[in-house]
Automatic annotation (TrEMBL):
Intracellular or extracellular location(s): Membrane
Gene Ontology BP term (one): protein secretion
Segments traversing the membrane: 56-76, 121-142, 148-167
Name of the molecule in the record: Golgi apparatus membrane protein TVP23 homolog
Record membrane topology: Multi-pass membrane protein
One Pfam family per UniProt: DUF846
Segments forming a coiled coil: none
Amino acid sequence: CVLCFQDSLDAPLFGEDDDNISPKKSRIRHPVASFFHLFFRTSAILVYLLCEILSGRFVASMVTIILLLSCDFWTVKNVSGRLLVGLRWWNQVDEDGKSHWMFESRRVSRKSLNTSAESQIFWLGLIVCPVFWVVFVFSTIFSFSIKWLAVVILGLVLQWANLYGYVRCKVGGQASLRSMAKNYISVQILKKVELKQRGPAGVVF
């Protein structure tokens, strides 16, 4: 498994306009993305908890939960992570069958576009909701409710995949950026040393 980190330096992610306006830290710049970041995952949990009360039909409840979980996985992976915290991850398989985990972070000069309110919403929803599915897995096993076991495991896997991907993206991306900064500084120092050695007329002493 190969890990690849990159910083978006050439163009802004997500089709945003490249402006220099720094928003207030408490302001939510992407209310729709923030809403759906929490809507699908909390709705799946609520449907699971209330399905016996709202509907006695197992198949209908199961399909509804799976659809909500699928929508949540796609939204968090492709939309809310990019807009709310400037991170993106994906996995691709090359021609040799080798799996590559790809991580991308918004360039440093544009990270001021992320507000603390959006970041808190993103990470709170990303971390708290998988905990519920862990509880559901154990409760399903202990109550011998085997028919729900596949559903709760699916919920845990999908939400845990996003959590794992974004945590690795954030931690690994920061390490990658520090490495890039060190390499850049080293290159600049070497260039200055070479210029000094050549002298004003370009003659090497």
